[in-house]
Design goal:
By secondary structure, the protein is of the alpha/beta class. It is 46% helix and 12% strand. Strand 4 (104-108), helix 6 and strand 5 form a beta-alpha-beta unit. Bound molecules: uridine-5'-diphosphate-xylopyranose.
């Protein structure tokens, strides 16, 4: 998120100085290497580095020296109890306070629980050397991995939480070139917008996943049902796909953090606790489907897993459902062959299990398998040569966790096909 924000603000005409506590990342970026896969990002970074509008430096001191606006984009991971761990924010605040010598607008871009802004303000006020003036703003980011540049440059809205006229003016000026609808709130308001927006989207996914189970129990088709519901503009068909549950670096963590802060505030968010429960359950639903398609026995079966990243067009493996699914399959003594267009290296590191055989393409992964499981809906799997796949599989069994195929077509092609909440 930090890198995308930096690159896009450079594209909008600003000079952006980026730094990170991970020096290997900065070293790579200084050489022109981009440590993550994100469509269009590399080209933008290269262009604006060459124009010296995007600069990478080793220390916060160097980064903030001449900057007027400072975006905090550090990670806010979950602690074991679900609470957001704000120690990275704290460290950065100390450094900013120590090194700022002129007015700064300090912007929370990381997702943080409500009231963090107040704490950031107090921390900086306490640790600043002289009485240097500063403002705080909260400007949550809604970009999605895989379409991050597009989401940044053409957002549905920009949310800005501010408490002074000066901060508001500066933020509006920064975002003016985007010509996006603006939502101006208090700092606390903007903090809640971010948690609540992610909580709502996660709820939408768990809702349709639960509906998919009802469809399955009754012989209805969740794709038709989702369309029927979503054509109501108030609900919308977007982000309403049943599957194996949500993953990624945001939803699971933000749902946990929101549950935790609501508890702490004395308002337990029971609905969100259920959203989380359904999301965990959905992975079991998927494993059960695989088991059933193998006549009740996973042990000793060879399973091809297609797609590892938490969603397509990214190599991000953070909270990827594939990790839990593969671990469960291995626990039940399956042999797992896997393929992903981008995420195999990271998946290998995350899984750290030599039993998983990573393959060079979908076809070699399918060869000799008893079952093919679609875990991430990469485009190349949608366009796969099904005739070839059928020949390569030991048994023509497909369990499609993302509903990328048409059940009728699959049946006609001779597959034993199971989707999520589909009518066969
Ligand atoms: C999310 C938010 O969308 C974004 O606004 C926020 O800034 C960061 O978190 P991201 O994590 O990149 O973005 O992925 P997103 O596209 O939202 O998908 C999240 C998860 O939900 C994925 O695992 C995806 O597979 C799942 N999902 C999404 C579904 O299961 N069904 C859907 O209909 C949509």
């Amino acid at each position: 998120m930090g890198l995308v924000t930096g690159a896009c603000f450079a594209k909008l005409g600003n000079t952006v100085i980026c730094t990170d506590s991970d020096k290997t990342k900065i070293k790579a970026l200084k050489k022109g290497d981009v440590p993550i896969y994100e469509p269009m990002l590399k080209g933008i970074i290269r262009k604006y580095r060459r124009m010296k509008r995007l600069i990478f430096v080793d220390t916060i001191e160097e980064a903030i020296k001449s900057a007027k606006v400072i975006f905090i984009c550090v990670g806010t991971p979950s602690r074991e109890n679900g609470e957001a761990d704000l120690s990275n924010i704290e460290k950065v605040c100390h450094e900013i306070a120590r090194h700022m010598h002129s007015y700064k607008l300090i912007v929370e871009k990381s997702t943080v629980p409500v009231q963090t802004g107040e704490w950031v303000k107090d921390t900086i006020r306490f640790f600043r050397k002289k009485k240097v003036k500063f403002d705080i703003a909260c400007n949550p980011e809604f970009l999605r991995e895989g379409s991050a540049i597009k989401d940044f440059m053409r957002p549905d809205r920009v949310v800005i939480g501010v408490e002074t006229k000066k901060a508001k003016k500066l933020m509006l000026k920064l975002y003016k070139p985007l010509k996006a609808p603006m939502s101006i709130t208090t700092i606390k308001g903007a903090e809640i917008v971010k948690h609540a927006a992610n909580a709502f989207l996660a709820t939408k996914i768990s809702f349709i996943n639960e509906i998919s189970n009802i469809c399955e129990a009754t012989g209805a088709d969740v794709v038709e049902v989702a369309r029927g519901i979503g054509m109501d503009k108030r609900i919308s068909e977007n982000f309403f796909n049943a599957g194996i549950g949500f993953g990624g670096s945001c939803f699971p963590k933000d749902v946990d953090a929101f549950i935790h802060i609501c508890d702490k505030l004395g308002h337990p968010f029971r609905l969100l606790e259920d959203v989380k429960r359904i999301n965990i359950q959905q992975k079991h639903v998927f494993i059960d489907k695989i088991r059933r398609s193998l006549n009740g026995k996973i042990k000793g079966k060879k399973i091809c897993v297609l797609g590892l990243s938490f969603k397509p067009d990214t190599d991000d493996m953070r909270n990827a459902p594939s990790l839990d699914i593969i671990k469960k399959l291995l626990n039940e003594k399956a042999v797992v062959k896997a393929y992903d267009p981008q995420a195999m290296e990271k998946a290998g590191e995350e899984l750290g299990d030599k039993r998983v055989k990573f393959c060079e393409d979908a076809y070699s992964a399918a060869r000799g398998c008893d079952c093919l499981a679609i875990v991430t809906e990469w485009n190349e799997f949608k366009k796969i040569n099904l005739k070839k796949i059928k020949k390569l599989l030991k048994r023509p069994v497909i369990v499609d966790g993302r509903n990328i195929y048409d059940p009728a077509v699959m049946k006609k092609s001779g597959f034993m096909y199971t989707g999520i909440g589909r009518r066969i």
